[in-house]
Amino acid sequence: MRLSVVDVPERSRYEVSADGRVVGFSAYHLISEGVLALPHVEVEPAFEGRGVASELMRRSLDEIRERGLRIVPVCPFAQAFLKRNPDYADLVHQG
Fold first, then answer.
1. Considering the entire predicted model, what is its pTM?
2. What is the per-residue pLDDT across 50-64, written as a single tens digit (0 to 9) for each?
């Protein structure tokens, strides 16, 4: 399975595609200058448990880091991902 992740700013989300078909997303909203809230991550049930949501988080967080932004992880999946991957802890907005 070939995954790709793209930012879709007009929908305020990152979308993950499997072999060219969108199968999930990670929503975001700008809550203050340079800070994005991550309220929801969703992957189609047929793709759960296959690492799709984790790859979506990894690639979207890498891009958020490149853009110099910070995050507020609201979604329970995003919070759990950050606990399992402390190398992204620097992205969490303090304040």
1. 0.93
2. 999 999 999 999 999
